[in-house]
Each structure stands twice: as C-alpha cells, then as structure tokens.
Design brief:
There is one protein chain. The protein is an all-alpha fold and about 200 residues long. The chain has one domain. It is about 65% helix and about 0% strand. It is built from ten helices and no strands. It is elongated, with a radius of gyration of 20 Å.
Length: about 200
C-alpha cells in the first residue's frame, strides 16, 4: 500500500514539475523576437529607437507573443491582408509629415516624437497569430472605450483558455496545446495592448 502511495505522490510531483517547467517556458518564449515580414521592414526602420526596443523586447512584445500563441491554431491564413497592411504601415511611417523623427533639440521627448507603431512592430516580430491579434485590437479600439475593450480582451483570453483545456480532454494530446492553455495575460497587459493599438490612429 505504501508503494502505491509513493507512486501516486511521484506521479503528482512529476505533473507539477512539468506544469512549472512549461510555465517557465511560456515566460521565456514570450521574449523571443522573430523576423518581421519583409513588407513591415520600412516601419521597423522608421520607428524611434525607444519604440523599437519596446516593440522587440518590452511588455507589448511579450503580450503580442502570448496572444498570438494563444489563438494561433484557429486563425486563418491572411497573406494578402498582412502584405497590404505591412506595405501601408511602412509607407505611412516613412512619410516625414506624418512621422517626423525626433531630434537632439527635442531633448528627453525625442523618443516619443512621431507616429506610434509600437504594437504593429511588436505583432510583426511575434510570429503566427500576433498580427491577427493586433488587427483585432485596432477594431476593438475603434468600437469600444478603453475599459470596455480591455474587458472584452479579458473575456476572450478566459474563453480561449477554457476551449484549449476542453481540447486537452480529447483523444489526441499535444504538448503545444498544453503550453498554450497555460498562457497568462494579465488585465494590465491587456490594457496596455489596447492603449498601444489606440495610439496607432492610422
């Protein structure tokens, strides 16, 4: 009887360790930067250094990665929309009348001068599903107030995680599904994501 108890404890402990390891992997994968589609490179080149660092390494990037991974499996391919969006965003970003470059004379505000394409670049460098999530963020920002859009995002995330947990009970088990079901996006991060999409205003 003692050996059964030990086996059960060791199995539970193994599951707990695996869950912790996957949660840590989740945190690590969120900061990985991927190559942006070619159509978006003009935007990346036009961003201020401060905004580009935030888009590639900051919390907006981590949120884009998490949301992209959470929803990616059910997102349709949108190559033409992605291409058109990237080309247009790059075109606007390279227009100095819309996106002036901060100068030394602007002092500490130099990094804040010009159009804010942080969330676009964050999504473009975050892999499959992230651009879908950015476009959705732009739609929600146009239709709802900041507090309402953040609440909607929170509901999306909760509902999606519930769907993924349901799928884990199916016959085919996938590690990627388990990892995605453990993704956590806080309400503060979702509010920041919404705010960044609102600031695009293009």
């Amino acid at each position: 009887m003692a050996s059964i108890g030990k086996f059960a404890f060791s199995l539970a402990n193994g599951v707990q360790e695996t869950t912790v390891a996957l949660a840590n992997l989740n945190l690590d994968f969120a900061v990985v930067r991927l190559e942006a589609p070619a159509e978006f490179r003009g935007l990346g080149d036009a961003l201020s250094k401060k905004r580009k660092i935030e888009a590639e390494e900051g919390s907006v990037h981590a949120t884009a990665r998490r949301l992209g991974a959470l929803f990616a499996d059910d997102m349709p391919d949108i190559p033409e929309l992605t291409r058109a969006y990237g080309l247009r965003a790059s075109e606007i970003a390279s227009d100095n009348s819309v996106n002036p470059t901060g100068q030394i004379t602007d002092g500490p505000l130099a990094g804040h001068i010009g159009a804010d394409g942080t969330s676009i670049w964050a999504a473009a460098t975050s892999g499959r599903g992230a651009l879908h999530m950015h476009l959705l963020a732009c739609l929600l920002a146009r239709m709802w107030s900041a507090s309402e859009a953040t609440a909607i995002w929170s509901e999306f995330v909760s509902a999606r995680k519930a769907i993924l947990r349901e799928r884990l009970n199916g016959t085919e088990f996938q590690t990627s599904l388990l990892t995605a079901s453990l993704i956590d996006v806080t309400r503060d991060r979702l509010a920041e994501w919404d705010a960044s999409a609102r600031s695009v205003g293009w």
